[in-house]
Write a structure and sequence with these properties.
The protein folds into two domains: 122 residues, no CATH class; 57 residues, no CATH class. α3 packs across α5. By secondary structure, the chain is mostly helical.
Length: 189
């Protein structure tokens, strides 16, 4: 796709510089956040929720597939990948999204570097620790998805097996919490 086919949306990209190549300033080193997920949340807030996993993957793949070992290298690799993809975007929506990624990385370099550092730290964790982090991050979304849905037969069977004799939980989320509490009480979780 040529820049003109996006209605001029990408015409400004030639003026942007990739991180790690030619920065207009040397951003301050990010201060360690109180919450280890803060850089991830703050930087990804620039993007629509349905696009955030794709953005995250760009950062993770820059480490896994390209061997980046510093935040600046990660950001530079992400920049190069996104810039290359803008040249081959087949539709205006994708082209606009990719251009937005580049603009955000240019205007929030400190956030991009902090996010890249958090991804580097995550990727350095042992596999089991990464799995625990993924489970902890997913728990609120799983719980929300279970709310308002009828309790399943396996959940009811598990509650009976655990000796629960109270009222039937109002939804899957409540049943899940009860099961976890009962299992923890028995030392099974």
């Amino acid at each position: 796709m040529t820049p003109d086919s996006t209605g001029g949306q990408l015409s400004h990209l030639s003026t942007l510089q990739p991180l790690g190549k030619s920065l207009p300033f040397d951003p301050p080193a990010p201060t360690p956040p109180q919450d280890p997920d803060e850089p991830r949340r703050v930087f990804l807030q620039h993007f629509e929720p349905q696009r955030r996993s794709g953005i995250a993957n760009l950062f993770h793949f820059s480490i896994r597939d390209h061997g980046c070992t510093t935040a600046r290298q990660v950001c530079s690799q992400v920049w190069q990948t996104v810039h290359r993809r803008t040249q081959y975007a087949n539709d205006p929506e994708t082209a606009t999204h990719l251009a937005h990624v580049l603009v955000v990385m240019q205007h929030d370099q400190t956030g991009a570097l902090a996010y890249a550092q958090s991804v580097l730290e995550y990727e350095q964790l042992p596999y089991e620790a990464r799995q625990r982090v993924k489970t902890q991050r997913a728990a609120p979304y799983i719980h929300a998805a279970m709310q308002g849905k009828d309790v399943t037969a396996p959940q009811l069977a598990m509650l009976r097996r655990l000796g629960y004799e109270g009222t039937v939980p109002r939804d899957r989320a409540e049943a899940s919490v009860l099961i976890d509490e009962l299992m923890r009480g028995r030392g099974e979780l």
